[in-house]
Amino acid sequence: MSKEIKIAVLVILTLGASIWGYKYIIGKNLLKKSNVYFVDYDNVNRVNISTPVKYLGYQVGFVAAVTPQLASGTIRLTLDLDKTMALPRGSRADILTETFMGSASIILTIPGGCNGDCLPSGTLIGGKNLGILGSMVDKDDLKTYVSILQEGISVLVDSLGKQMATEGTSDSKMAQAIDNLTLTIDHLEGLTGQLQGVMASSGKNISRSIESLAGILDNVEASNAEISSMLRDLSVITRQVKDADAQKTIESLQASLAGLQATLRVADTTFTGVNMVLTDIQAGKGSLGKLVKDDALAENLGALSRHIDTLVVDLQERPYRYIPLKSRRKTEKRDREP
Question: Are the CB atoms for 123 and 39 separated by under 8 Å?
Fold first, then answer.
């Protein structure tokens, strides 16, 4: 065999193994025969390819394909079942939602054995989506639960009716609340009657007040022209006062600016003199300039300062030296004393 033939055979074997492995993963064993049935649903929520098909809790197949039927508005599922699962007439395949968040599965309902009239492979069978409630509770159990719930609600309603009907004899909080509500409504009716009486007795006074208010409004409307004239005069006076205040403010500001300019001129003159003094000092003119520029003079002044310090210290320690004495011996004697 040539290399090309060997490569071709290897590729064919690899493709075959891949297809068989994929089918085996989704539950289809190509080495085993199977029966295929079709089911149409209005809704196949959570059903996908490889969704398990179960009979009495045991997986007997899987969903091989999901095909939309646009003409009928349904979804057709292809069920791939074991060869031993030959369905009789009347068999159903319902979608069961096992949990609220989990996946779904296909549950087979088989009425009995085939007895020689099994449905051939490729037959369309019936089925529907049971939904969450139908998946969790059977129809008979659901009727039982509803009956129990109805009985409980009936007993509760009867108990509430008895407590509400026995006026003044029940100690329950609900009966007391209803009695209090009744008293509140009675008091509210009395209050409403009193309010109607007050309104009836005060109706004439309210009418007179409204008539007086109408007269006042008429007077105001008649005096509208005078009020408008007064407002215009007040506006003119306010404008004049505002203009006078603005003129005074401007004059005061001009005087302040003139004073500020004079101050700036004096400051300019002062700064000019200081600048000239600093220039002379920098040039070494005058005593201060010589002191700044002449190093010998600065050193002499330092030496003079040190001598003065020595003289002051000696004057503080031996003042008798500077007091006129008649004998020099006494001075030397005082120096020898500790």
Answer: no
Nearest 5°: the CA angle 127, 129, 131 is: 150
pLDDT tens digit string along 3-36?
Answer: 888 888 888 888 887 876 766 666 555 556 778 9
Handedness of CA 154, 159, 163, 165 (dihedral sign): positive
| Tokens 């996908």, residue located | 48
H-only helix segments in 26-138: 131-136
Q: Are 79 and 106 in contact (CB under 8 A)?
A: yes
Q: Which residues contact 314 (CB under 8 A, 6 or more apart)?
A: 321
High-pLDDT (> 90) share of the chain, %: 9
**In Å, how far are 16, 27, 117 from 61, measured between CA atoms?**
22, 7, 21
For tokens 């409307």, what's the residue? 221
Tokens read off for 17: 């193994």
Q: Which strands form 104-109's sheet, in the order they lie side by side?
A: 92-97, 104-109, 52-55, 58-69, 74-82, 34-41, 123-125
- The helix (H) or strand (E) run that includes residue 67 is strand 58-69
Query: 327's torsion region: left (phi>0), alpha (psi -120 to 50) or beta?
Result: beta
**How far, in Å, CA of 149 to CA of 156, rounded?**
11
Q: Say if CB 87 and CB 119 are below 8 A apart.
A: yes
CA gap 290, 284 in Å, rounded: 5
Q: Report which secondary-structure segment, H or E, holds 259.
A: helix 224-283
Please identify which residue in the block is written with the tokens 């500001």.
Answer: 253
Q: Are 65 and 81 in contact (CB under 8 A)?
A: no
pLDDT at 188: 87
DSSP state of 100: S
Please classify residue 127 by burial: count the beta carbons closer than 10 Å to its beta carbon, then call 0-12 exposed, 13-18 middle and 19+ buried: buried
Cα 74 to Cα 39, 129, 163: the distances in Å are: 10, 12, 55
Tokens 């059977």 correspond to 138
